[in-house]
Amino acid sequence: MHTSFSRRRFLSSIAGCSLAAIGEQVKANPAPEAVPAQGPLRITVDGTAWGTASTVDIAADLSSAGQQIWTHCPHTQLDPIFIYHRTDNPVTDSLRDIRGRICIGLASQDTRWAQFAFQFGHEFCHALTQHSGIGKRGWHNLRHANMWFEESLCETGSLFALRRMSDLWKTTPPYPTWRAYAPALATYATQRLARPEHQLPAGVPFQAWFHDSETAMRGNPALRDKNTIVASQMLPIFEAEPEKWEALCYLNLGTRDAKKPFNRHLAEWKQNLPPELKSTVTRIGELFGVQV
After folding, report:
1. 3: Cβ–Cβ under 8 A, 6 or more apart, which residues?
2. Which H helix or E strand runs over 287?
3. Per-residue model confidence as pLDDT tens digits over 191-245
4. SS3 content of the chain, % helix, strand, coil (to 5)
5. What is the largest CA-CA distance in the chain?
6. CB-based burial of residue 193 (10 Å sphere; 0-12 exposed, 13-18 middle, 19+ buried)?
7. What are the extents of the domains in the chain?
C-alpha cells in the first residue's frame, strides 16, 4: 500500500523527506537502459516500537524476504531502505527521507517473522515499481484506475516471498535456530490463500469473475479480498518464471492517463519492457482474457 498526499502528511514529513519526487507531470520517457544492480539489499530498521523483536533480527528477516524477489532483478538499482513502525497498516512512502532512503512502514511486532515477511514482500514490490532506478522515472499520481493491478502484483510478491523463504530456511536460514520456523512461512501463505473470501465463487471462471469485479477494483485499489484472488491467479506465472519480477520496475512508465482502460495499461507496460521481459505481459493478458 502507498501513502497518499495530504496537507497534514506533508507538513509532518517535510523535515525528514526530500521533495524531489514532487513535480509537474511530464510525458513518459522511453524505457531507459538497464544498469547493473548495486549488490545486496541495504535495509536499516528504526530502533523503536517493535516489541520483543530486535532490529538486527527484523532486518535479517526482511532481507531474506526481499531477496527472494531482488535476486531476480539483476539489472535494477535500488537505494537503501529505511524501515519504521506503524500502528495502522503497512505503507511505502512516496517521499524519501533526508538521506534519500526509501521509507517503508510496517505494522508488525515481536517475533512474527511470517507477518513481517508478508508485509515487507508487498511493500518491497511497491518500492520496485515506484523507487527503483527505472521505476522512479515514471512518477505517477497513485490515484489512478489501474492501481488495483499494482496492489495485486504486490500481494503476489508477498506470497511468492513466503513460499520461497520457507524452502530456503529449511537448509540456510538467517540463523540456524530459525530452521524450525521454515514451515510456518509456507503455512502463513497457504492459510491466506485458503480463506473463503479469497476463493473464486463456485463454478465461476477467473475471467468471468474479473469482468464482474473490475469496476469495483478500479474504484478502490485496496479491496484486499479481490487483490488476493487476483494474486492467487498470477502467482503460478511468477513461480514458474521468477525472472519476470524485474518487469515490475517498468510498470509505471506509461502515459499519465488516470482513467485509461486496463488493456491499454498492459500494452504500455509491454511497450516499455526490454525484449526479454515482454512475455510477462503477454502471459498476464492471457490470464485476464485481455488482448495486449
Report:
1. 9, 91, 92, 93, 94
2. helix 278-288
3. 999 999 999 999 999 999 999 999 999 999 999 999 999 999 999 999 999 999 9
4. 55, 10, 40
5. 54
6. middle
7. 43-288
Q: Which three cell numbers stand for residue 266?
A: 498492459
Digit-coded pLDDT (tens) for 154-175: 999 999 999 999 999 999 999 9
DSSP 25: -
Name the nearest CA neighbour of 228 among 187, 261, 263, 200. 200
What cell was used for 208? 468471468
Which contacts of 165-168 are long-range, i.e. CB under 8 A and separated by 24 or more positions?
165/64, 165/65, 165/68, 165/117, 168/64, 168/68
In what helix (H) or strand (E) does residue 8 lie, and over which residues does it extend? helix 7-13
With b for 16 or more beta-carbon neighbours within 10 A and e for fewer, the 67-102 pattern comes to bbbbebbebbbbbebbbbbeeeebbbbbbbbeeebb
Question: In the structure, what pLDDT confidence band is assigned to residue 136 with cuts at 50, 70 and 90?
Answer: confident
Dist CA 36 CA 204 (whole Å):
44
Question: 55 burial class (0-12, 13-18, 19+ CB within 10 angstroms)?
Answer: middle
Predicted model pTM: 0.87
Question: Which of 5-14, 101-110, 122-131, 174-183 is predicted least confidently?
Answer: 5-14
- What would the CATH number be for the domain defined by 43-288? 1.10.390
Reduced to 3 states, what is the DSSP secondary structure of residue 44?
strand
